[in-house]
Amino acid sequence: DMSNCERNKKLLLELVRRPENRRCADCGAADPDWASYKLGVFLCLNCSGIHRSLSSKVKSIKLDFWEDELVEFMKSNGNASAQALYEKAVPPYYYRPQHTDHVVLREQWIRAKYERMEFTGQTKYPPLPYTTGFYEGMLWKKGKENTQFLKRKFVLSEREFTLTYYNKENESKGPKAVISIKDLNATFQPERIGHPHGMQITYQVDSHTRNLYVYHDSPEEIVTWYNAIRAARYAYLKTAYPTGSDKELIPKITRNYLKEGYMEKTGPLVSCQKHKQSYIKLIFMSHLNHPHVHYVYDCLFSPL
After folding, report:
1. Which of 208, 228, 231 is nearest to 220 (CA)?
2. Where is the PH domain (predicted)?
3. Are residue 48 and residue 144 in the same domain, yes or no?
4. Count of domains in the chain?
5. Would you say 262 and 283 are in contact if contact means Cβ atoms under 8 Å apart?
6. Fewer CB in 10 Å around end: N or C, the chain?
């Protein structure tokens, strides 16, 4: 009846105001107004959509009807107890996505926690690339001269602190590039790369910044690559700063560019054939290890 329905809604609203339930269990967004009554967690709208796609049972706190036993279930569970179980053994370097992160990261975090049970501390997880410090596989890499993506073999070695990739199938010719983990940053850039799993790898060569644009068709695989790179970066930082605490080191592992945008570069006029403009587009970034601003030519959007 109506009074029961109102009472249950009131109880749920009281539960979601508890300190441990005030943020989405998966991405930390404030004021979650959805819940999974299979897992007993309070969720934001975006994460509830991901849970629904994994056939988890979700309801709106305010809009849906809640049976008494479901309210009791939410009351006896909640975000804190779920996190104690499903996030018991999250490695320090593993990236915990925020609500502002790309969907591939948020979805894989949710799948890793509840579907693959990677962090309960009782299974074969976390995956080997994170714990052995060695990972290899194929990624689609954007060609330097043209916009075509080609399959390339990548090898990540924590022992050597390197990420290596090979251009041709014939590896006897040696690697195309050996990138030091010391100078490497990885960040998801699906819009720029034109693929929902697009990742940008940035590194230093002498005083220049280079970018690799890669993706993998499997969302699990690209997020595994991302966290394997983070694992290697974390291991590197532990050797470079042996007295550094996790609190100090973890923000340094990888970072999304804080400031990145387009500016018109003044100077000699350069004609852009595609748009007949008398300036070129540059991307200005502040880099991981080099706080000064620098720019790279934007060759992705328009050929110069």
Report:
1. 228
2. 132-234
3. no
4. 3
5. yes
6. N
